[in-house]
């Protein structure tokens, strides 16, 4: 917990904790609302795609734009936009005006806001932590918050959905953005360096760095492969909860919470790591665990076994995603940080969107269980490819860490 010694990061940490919990409650409520009113696995995939694809399409340019502006001020403004989106969604749902088209539109609005919000939050962490050696710990603690919300939020959402409604969940999420707004307003930081030139030129500079720096390019490739396959499970969870396990919103909350439990465990593990090069082994392990967990979840019809598979899957995905983020931010020059973070979020959420869309359509054709098994087989094939590059990747990371140290 050493990064919490920094006052600015401590303020951000507390505000982020509240905000993330609300975001997970809204995500579960949104998925349940879509499936409740349509009963369509394909529409679950489309809605998830609409919420995440702006990260792939808008995210890289957002990173270039972010590096040209005051990140702290714009993070506060984006919190206001996110709160407005949640309030509008709550009102429309309460009035009974929501349908498939409107839900997709609201998902797109959320995705565009998140395309700016996520790289803003991530790139500011290095500003909130004064000592470079504490940055990996700060990133791990930030991921721990995300996964704590992922662990607690879905069961809470399931309980709230049983007692109230989806509209109440959306309204509660809108209130949680106030916490991060107030926390960031109280942060005291010096001005950060800003990129010069047009957004297009700034973007090209970041893209050239990412493409010509082999470790960065390889890590982003791993990120895309993992999220195209393993992270697509989230789209199909409502189908498994309702049809495979004959449950309700509480069953969905338990499955999602089990994945969050594993993810939380992974970030506790990563927060104790002091060796940056050692993260390569953790990423390789996480990819393998994710593939095996997909196979187990797709095969079983027993809820306890499925929950155990979700714990393993949450652990594997989070170890990879958070470990890659820690490596990329440790290697990125300060002047390029917003752009490198945006490439990370594009690969993380953009390929999650593509994977979710494909999973929804494939599940409609062959069923959710077979879809998960197919995803697991594809990811296992990628694991074999990754093992052939593992030593070279570890060597590059060790060299960079030694030079920076």
Automatic annotation (TrEMBL):
Its main location: membrane. Signal peptide: none annotated. Keywords: Cell membrane, Membrane, Transmembrane, Transmembrane helix, Transport. It is found in: Cell membrane. CDD domains: MFS_MefA_like. SUPFAM superfamilies: MFS general substrate transporter. GO terms for cellular component: plasma membrane. The chain crosses the membrane at residues 12-35, 41-62, 159-184, 219-241, 253-272, 279-299, 305-328, 349-366, 372-388. InterPro entries: MFS_trans_sf, TM_effector. This is MFS transporter. It comes from Zoogloea dura.
